[in-house]
Write a structure and sequence with these properties.
binds tetrahydrodeoxyuridine, 6-stranded mixed beta sheet, Cytidine Deaminase, domain 2, 4 helices, 27% helix, 160 residues
């Protein structure tokens, strides 16, 4: 038996104003998208914005459903929309923001496991890693330089 230690690297910014201006702009797009989320059941609104290599920004927000599992997270709404419009798009970065209608969220909200797996698929099929920035409604912003930092031991098509 031997142990394997996996190290991940995350950067923490104390607020949005510490981010590069281009990422502040991307996060603002995610905030705008978040406001249009359809989240009557959880009252938890999430917005995501993708910066594409072309310069375009694609956004998404969570879409809930009375049949709960039929809903979809903001990150997957955004990335599937980008993939459906432009299958060859390079995703440079993603900004994620979440707001609860019950309390002020100051803790950065990372993408859920299923969204990490979907993000992994898109990162694996392009060359550059995807930078992921996530936050709550206000406060700290966490940056991962790659999906691999959020999802060690990625399952991808090489196993098939
Ligand atoms: N949600 C997202 O949109 N992204 C995540 O990564 C975590 C969860 C949504 C799904 C659901 O509409 C609500 O937040 C509460 O789970």
């Amino acid at each position: 038996m031997k142990n394997i230690k996996i190290e991940i690297n995350l950067e923490v910014f104390s607020s949005v104003s510490e981010l590069p201006v281009s990422i502040q702009r991307l996060m603002n797009k995610a905030h705008e998208a978040r406001e249009n989320a359809y989240a009557p059941y959880s009252r938890f609104k999430v917005g995501a914005a993708l910066q594409l290599g072309s310069g375009d920004i694609v956004t998404g927000n969570n879409q809930e459903n009375a049949a709960y599992p039929s809903g979809l997270c903001a990150e997957r709404v955004a990335i599937f929309h980008a993939g459906s419009q432009n299958p060859d798009a390079i995703i440079v970065s993603m900004a994620i923001t979440a707001k609860s209608l019950n309390s002020i969220l100051t803790t950065p909200v990372p993408p859920c496991g299923a969204c990490r797996q979907v993000l992994a698929e898109y990162e694996v099929k392009q060359d550059p890693s995807i930078e992921i920035y996530f936050m709550g409604e206000t406060g700290r912003v966490v940056k991962a330089n790659s999906v691999k930092d959020l999802l060690p031991l990625i399952f991808d098509s090489t196993f098939l």
